Amino acid sequence: MSEESTRAGYVALIGEPNAGKSTLLNRMVGAKVSIVTHKVQTTRSRIRGVALEGQAQLVFVDTPGLFRPRRGLDRAMVAAAWGGTADADIVLLLVEAHRGLTEGVQAILDSLDEKVGRRPVALVINKIDKVKAEALLALTQALNEAHAFEATFLISAERGHGTEDLKAWLGARMPEGPWLYPEDQLADLPLRMIAAEITREKLTLRLHQELPYELTVETEAWEEREDGSARLDQVIYVARDGHKGIVLGRKGETVKGVGQAARTELETFMGRRVHLFLQVKVRPNWLEEAERYSEMGLDFKDSK
After folding, report:
1. Terminal CA-to-CA distance of the chain, rounded, Å?
2. Where is it chiefly localized (predicted)?
3. How far apart are CA 44 and CA 200, in angstroms?
4. Residues forming beta bridges with residue 154, ordered by sequence position
């Protein structure tokens, strides 16, 4: 393709935790590159997913949800979320239709001009299948009165309603220029990090509500085998001894189930056989270790 015939740019997704940013990213890319769970604050780092729309390449930056931080990891996640807009050509603010104009959404609106500057911002009201038309109309009006959005889209990221119109609109507004990634690349996260995120998702889905934010997963070793398969050794770091027992489960059943689920998804994602080995280690101060933040794609300085 010639440079003149192509477009490419960055689209930052921002919003409260659980607004559906990761679901929309995966929908746009057509593959699962970001963690999707019913629990909030599961996306920790800025994850880039690459989608094609005609001659345009859209690089979506899925950010951690914006919320009021209470601890170091929270502060680093919020900094990463706003940081994700820094290079964006267009910013999409996702709002849950059934939750409406919450205090959290209002706080984001209040910060938009300062944090985003003159970058165009479009409003995306998600999960429209959960509310009636009258409520949707009122919410759309209230949000547009609160900020001058470039455009408003009503979608269901989970069902795909309205997402094609959004994608076409974005494609037409990307700057002209060469594509930023190879045509067949879906994400710019290293495979090691994607593998760790997949395992963390399975843990998040399986474990007690509070525990997932006290653990992290790292891919410690990756071995390519002669038969085409891969061996992955991962470490699950927890902050307390009591958490290790919860992660392991009775007779190791919990971590075994997590490992099987993660391995199955990894094999589907990679299209080949995977041998996955999980270890659980207690590191009481992992939330204060710069190396752990680097592994999550966060800046340790932002936690202070």
Report:
1. 46
2. cytoplasm
3. 11
4. 125
Residue 17 annotated as lining a ligand binding site: yes
The answer on whether 297 is annotated among ligand-binding residues is no
**DSSP per residue over 237-269, as a string?**
EESSHHHHHHHH-GGGHHHHHHHHHHHHHHHHH
Is 302 labeled as ligand-binding?
Answer: no
26 is in an annotated binding site: no
pTM: 0.64
Question: Does 63 appear as a known binding residue?
Answer: yes
Do 41 and 155 lie in one domain? The reply is yes
Does residue 18 have a known ligand-binding role? yes
242 annotated as belonging to a binding site for a ligand: no
**CA count, 13 A, side-chain hemisphere, 112:** 26
Q: Give yes or no: residues 235 and 292 share one domain.
A: yes
CATH code, domain with 231? 3.30.300.20
Residue 87, annotated ligand binder?
Answer: no
Q: Answer yes or no: is 216 a known binding residue.
A: no
* Total count of domains within the chain: 2
The residue count of the chain comes to 304
Q: Is 89 annotated as a binding residue?
A: no
Both 143 and 214 in one domain: the answer is: no
pLDDT for 72:
57
Residue numbers of the chain with a pLDDT score lower than 70:
1-4, 31-47, 63-85, 185-190, 208-213, 292-304
Query: Which pLDDT tens digit goes with each residue over 73-126?
Result: 556 655 555 565 677 899 999 999 999 999 889 988 988 888 788 889 999 999
